[in-house]
Specification:
By secondary structure, this protein is of the alpha/beta class. Helices cover 31% and strands 34% of the residues. The chain has a single domain, classed as Beta Barrel (OB fold (Dihydrolipoamide Acetyltransferase, E2P)), CATH 2.40.50. The chain is elongated.
Length: 128
């Protein structure tokens, strides 16, 4: 009986330790990370037009910086989405909103390419 209880107790303690480590792991701070890839708006749109599957695989969950002109803002307080032609970025809460027509570099985590609207989507975005 003792040969079963001790290994079982060790396994339970290790399992609880791994679960607690995973549960309390800090969130990823995309704003403080350096961009893995830098593109102009035209370059990234062309990349996805030519090779959508391989580009999605390459950039998925990576921090990407895209330079372009703001063509519109959406959301209750105009800070929810920054729209460049072909690029949509959800800004982090309480960030300063850019002006329409301003050329910015939008940095965020690439989440997907929407082939219905031909848009590249970023979240946790910041701009400069």
């Amino acid at each position: 009986m003792r040969k079963i209880i001790i290994p079982l107790l060790i396994a339970v303690v290790l399992g609880v330790g791994v679960a607690l480590f995973t549960w309390f792991k800090p969130h990823r701070d995309v704003a403080s990370e350096d961009a893995s890839y830098n593109f102009s708006r035209g370059e990234v749109v062309e990349l996805f037009n030519q090779h959508p599957d391989s580009a999605t695989t390459l950039l998925l969950d990576q921090v990407v910086a895209i330079q372009g002109e703001v063509t519109g803002l959406e959301g209750a307080d105009s800070s929810q989405l920054v729209l460049m032609d072909g690029v949509v970025g959800a800004l982090i809460p309480n960030s300063i909103t850019p002006e329409v027509g301003q050329t910015i570099t939008l940095k965020g985590r690439f989440t997907n390419y929407d082939d219905l609207f031909f848009e590249i989507r970023l979240d946790q975005s910041t701009w400069k």
